[in-house]
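User: Could you walk me through two proteins back to back? I'd like the raw sequence and the structure tokens for each, with a short line separating them so I can tell where one ends and the next begins.

Assistant: Of course. Protein one, sequence then structure:
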Amino acid sequence: MSNPERKTNAQLVDTINQLKAQSRDTGAAVWRDVALRLSKSRKNWAQPNLSRVSRYAPEGATILVPGKLLGSGELTNGHTIAAYSVSNGAREKIEAAGGRIMTYGELMTENPTGRDGGVTQRMPSEP
């Protein structure tokens, strides 16, 4: 049996389509970039750890993770983080540090263009 040519997860396909539509409507390249990254194979998705977020993101930043956020490391600042998926450990640590976890849809509603104090950083995966 060969690999399917397109995504079979209906929720993921819907998320990708929402991101592309938001990019077309607002002209914001950030949503198109995330949609293209999520369209690729899961093994190529970003999977940063909390240690990377706390090391590189400024305090109070809104972080956009085009993939899954993992829970290794500690988080001391209250970041707002939007990711396709968040591990249980990461979720607990973010909430304990006073942070907030959002879906892509919630972030697009709050900040349609991805600018103006909104998305400050996109987290790549670990090197």
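----
Protein two, same layout:
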Amino acid sequence: MSSSTGIKKLQEEYKIIRRKNIFAAIQGTAAPIEKDFLHWCGCIMGPKNTPYSDGTYYFEIKFTNEYPTKGPIDVQMRTKIHHPNIDISNGHICNSYFSRWENTHNVTGIVNAIFDLLDDPNDKDGYRLTNEKKAKELNEKFATNDQEFDWNNSWNKGWNID
């Protein structure tokens, strides 16, 4: 693997993440897979007071050598989850943080964006048009902490890698 600018930038970010324990507040972690700085994995705990609380959610991020000029080429949830911003068939995460990428964005922002989506689904970034309506419904349920959606807790636990 060549020492591209993207890899160097990701190596620097990883050092900061490790040294500062960046994801402690969200009980999460992210790291390169087998020292491949263009391919990361991580996990976060489900946000409190949401249908995703008490769950552990694994994700995967793939970058190109053009990082940070270009954002990740893929961000996928590896834990099966019902969520309006996550494609149930492949785990692809739809989020404006990824699609409206700026070279000031970084791995920390990506992980925090995933956590924020679990905490508050985005009805403007619904994976499918039909999910946008569901996102609005979920937002209303979250606001009232309605337990109707607790079925997520039992299905979302564990790491489901195909």
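The longest strand covers residues 36-45.

Let me know if you want the two compared in more detail.
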